[in-house]
Every structure is written in structure tokens, then in C-alpha cells.
């Protein structure tokens, strides 16, 4: 017997956006491409868009090993790409009143319409409200016959309520629906051209976008517990008449041989609690992954499948007050030790300031810094962007911390010297490609639980050489925002930026977990039309750990084309709108005691290039 997977010559999810990078709230569009050598007996072809966060780590080994897990599904949107019936998402425990809309797309029913063979107004559609029962046949709560369909389409998108029936008789409850028609002609034609013009079968040139808003006043179908409700819809023949028991859907079907093209679209939920994509080396496995997944529903869990990974970015805006400069307060000299308190090797000190505490990936932070080395040895000096990742299990609330470092600047400060990053002018530090800050407010319950969150800080560090040498460190909490501040301000998205009278004083010398600002908020829904991620370059970070890309071993066991390659998200690196000069003029650097010391100035940035020199020059002219 030939398996369904062996009959698939091509199985692919094609996106309309080549980069595969989307903001929260955007609409994902594309085509499902399937080419089969012969007919496949199945229950349908399913399509799903989902986002999941997962963490796993362990302590000990052997009999003393303890494993810790945390996971959360942020959304799971499903639709039938090809089949005889179409279903909404299941609403667990909703009882007598089932209301959709809590999650984007949870009440959507996308039904392809072959209007080439029959006019749109002649279609008859059965809508059934069902109670899901594990291990036995689902209960029918009520049904309606949409006849004719054009009645619902007289006011496209307007909600209309219909009383329910069962076996041709009146039943408790009603269902509220709306609908409109979406044309797929251009999408299908473009996909055919990309396939070399080969003839293709499609589920329909038009799609009926049927939406269930609610099903209320339902009868109780279970002796114990509450109804677990979903709604299904399917096309029936013209011989079906109202006032009689409506036919059940035909679940088994034959997927035709040849080239099949099915257009699709998904609305990504607009929720600030949904994080950006992330691949981390914390623990044994740690990620936040978003993907499109399709499977041919056959028996015995042998579904041929394909998965397309995408990158989702959280566009949460930083509060305007983070654009104020931050300064390290004047402090007495720090004694540097080679190993312990009895091995003093001299003193050091540091004056430093940063032009703001919020920037985007690829943006420039401007700093002014002087480091005094009054020891007899050369001292390494570094400036790093550090991502602090926090992992947590759901039930036991066990915690784990992990840090990821990006080096932005380094220098060796000679003995008896004061090292200056720049002589009287701010020095640009270009930030690497990295995910926006994600550290939502702590709230009780499942909504407030996140397996992994992260924040950033800018770390200035002077280290005495040796395994036990002492160090002097300054930490500045940094919020990585979704776009450069000047761009956000020009578009009116940043709000009123305060004019600072004095810079913010930050005195953090010890590493510590930081919390993101509490007043971060989502921008208006027009944000992703004003700043579409397609306008900017992307940098794909290599995977931090050789871990499997599979999100579900059972779902992906028959992945078309074999095991998938390791996945790495793509983050925007803004080449347009990046900060060219400090947002505010920085105050005068405090005078450092330099008796008996020489001065050295950094001339070349480790990441410097022609663009960076130009940016620095513009900053000097505008500063």
C-alpha cells in the first residue's frame, strides 16, 4: 500500500511576503501549494498558524536528575484548506453561551466557493453548533440552513442572528453570523505563474468569509460539566429543504491528483503579551516560535505535513521619558586587586553617560566616557549590550537566569593613562540585530505566565587581568524598541517627549535583573502600515544551539522533504531613520583628576566603517 506522503511530489507554504517577518496585528497571506501523483483518501487538508513559547532545563544527573519544563501557546488559528466541512476553534467549558472574538480568528470559517459552476446565490450552507465529547460522538446543539446565502451577504460584515433547530424542530438558542466574499483570482493566477504556468486545481476563486460571533442560550448537552462548543459549516445540495433534519457532513473525501493551489490568510492577534520570536541557548531548550503548519488528515497518524517558520515582532512602544540622558554619578576611585584584598595594584575610576535608555536594533547609542588607569598594568575596558533572559516553569514557578552578551567596544588602557572614547564629542555605538525587549507586567493566572522574558542593559566594565582580578562596572538598563526614536516621533507615535532639566542618575555597579518600564504600550493599529518591516534590512542570527526545529514531534514526524534545518529568527536592522546624533545634547563631562597621568583617545571603533564615520561626523556637527 502506497503511503500518502509518497504520493506528494510537492508540498509547500508560500508567503506573499518573502522575508517572512511580521508585526503583531498584521495579516499573513500566501498560498498552499500541493502536487500529488494520484488521489489521496483523507478527511481534508488543514492549515494552522500558531505561536508557542517553551523552556526546558535540568539539574543533576543520573538518579539525581531533575527536569523542569515551561510552555505556553499564545495563539493557534486553524482553518480547512481543502475539505467537505469547516470548523471554528473549540471553546472549552463555555457552557450555554459561547462568545467568539477573544482570540483573533477563533470564530472564522473560510469556505472556498466554486462560482465557476454555480452562481453564488444558489449555494446552501448548513451551520451546526456542536458540543465536543472526547472518546464519543459529538452532540448536536442546534443547526440552521442558510438559504439563500445571498440573504446574509446583502449587508457584508453585518451580524445577523438565526434561531437554532434540531431534527427539523425548534431548539433552544441562536447563532449570530456575518459574512463577506473575498476574491482569490489574482492570488491564484500569480501562484500559477510561479509554478511555470502548469494547470492547477483550486478550491475556489472566491472564499466565503463566514464568521461566528456567538452562540447563546444553548441547551445543556452533558450530565456533568459544561458544553465544549465549536461551530462547523459545509455546503449541501439544492435538494436539502428547511423544516427537516439536515444532513451530516461527509467527512471522508478524495484529494485530486495534480497541482493544487489554495490561497489563505491569517490575522495575527494584536496583543502586547505576545512576545517577539526568540531562539535562546538557555537550558536544554528555549525558544519562542511562530509557524504556519499544514497537514493532510489521513488515518493512523500518518499525516503528510509541512511547516513554514516565520518571525513575529512585538511593536510595543517605549515610554518617552526613556529618551532622557543617563549619567554615572561621580564616585571615589576604586582600588583594583589582583586576587584578594591584600593584593592592591592601584586605583581606577570612570565617568560615563549615555544619551538615552531606548534604542532599536541597528540604531546608534551615543556615549561619553573617560576611564582612569592609575595601576601598573594594562586594564581591558569593554562596553557590552547584555540580554538578561528569565525562564520560569508554570506550576512550581522554578526560575532560571541566562545572559547573552554583544560586545560593542573594547580597548586596553595603558598604565598611567586616562582613556577617552572621544575628545569632547559623543561616540556612536551601533546596536546589533536583536529582539525587542519583552518583560510584561506580572499578573496572576495563565495570562500572566510567560516561560521566557528578557530585558537588556548596557554594561561598562573595567577588569583587572587574571582569574581573580577585581572589576569596576556600570549597568544602564536599555529598552530595545521596535524602531528608531526619530522615526517614531516624526510619525507621531512616541507622544510628548519630556525636555530633561537634569540627566537621570543611575548607580548600578552590580549585575541585577531589571524590569521593563511599566508604562510601555502598543501603538495604534496603523503602526505596521506606517513602518512596515519590509522597508528595512534584516539580519538572521545564527542558531545559538544545535537544537531541533520541530515544534511538535508527532505533528512533524512525516514532514515533507525530511527533517528541517535549524531555524533562526530575522530581526530588523534599520538603515533608514537610525539616530545620527544624540537625541539631546549631553551635559559636560565631570573633570577627572589626572595628576601624573597621560590622556589617550579612541580613534577607531571596532565595528567602524565609512557609514559609522559619517554618522559620527554628523553627530559632531549637530551636537
Automatic annotation (TrEMBL):
Cellular component GO terms, alphabetical: cytoplasm
Pfam families in UniProt: Arrestin_N
Membrane spanning stretches: none
InterPro entries linked to this entry: Arrestin-like_C, Arrestin-like_N, Arrestin_domain-protein, C2_domain_sf, Ig_E-set
Boundaries of every Arrestin-like N-terminal domain copy: 12-83, 251-315
Cross-referenced Gene3D superfamilies: 2.60.40.640
One GO BP annotation of this record: protein transport
Protein name per Swiss-Prot or TrEMBL: Arrestin-like N-terminal domain-containing protein
Species this chain originates from: Triparma laevis f. longispina
